[in-house]
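Can anyone check this?
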Amino acid sequence: MSRGRAGRSGWLALAALSALVAVAGCHPRPKYSGWHLEPVRSAPDLPLAGAGGLRISLGRPEGRLSLVTFGYSSCPDVCPATLADWRRVRPRLGADTSRVRFVFVSVDWKHDTPELAGAFARGFDRTFIGVLADSMALGRLLPAFRAEARYDTLPNGAGLAVSHTDYTYLVDDSARVALSYDFAAKPENLARDVRLMIAARRLAAR
């Protein structure tokens, strides 16, 4: 009888161990604070112009994640607030900053230039990238992010106002637009999600 009880105990222990191994091998999906965009779309491979002849493409992540937002250099409120929050994200990443691009995309192709977009972004942090997308590029770029941008005529014909989606987006190292964050998302939440995705994607240091 004692031998039988010992055999059953050993079987139960083996079963428990097997269950633990199975659970450990599942790699559960990290819990992000950002919203998952479903179905996931990829950023198109389009050259976007920055200052000094810089050309980048959100469709070519070069082994890094990208934090992306859309706006314009003369934006009076939303864009400065977003990039000011990004400035608080960067020091929270520590050594992981080398695995992330911070990209401000100007949608004001009628008034902005690559130099203006670049200067605006660098005004918050010298590592931030500012680029300009023309109307043709925006036609392909914005749908991938479920974003919008348009010009609105001001009352009495006083000029044009630029309207744009004020979200921040996290693009993974395969160019997939994975997560979105509404305006005024907490910098600590953005930093946490970036670190989680770096770990989940096993990105190497650059």
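Reply from J.R.: I decoded it. Residues 2-24 form the longest helix (23 residues).
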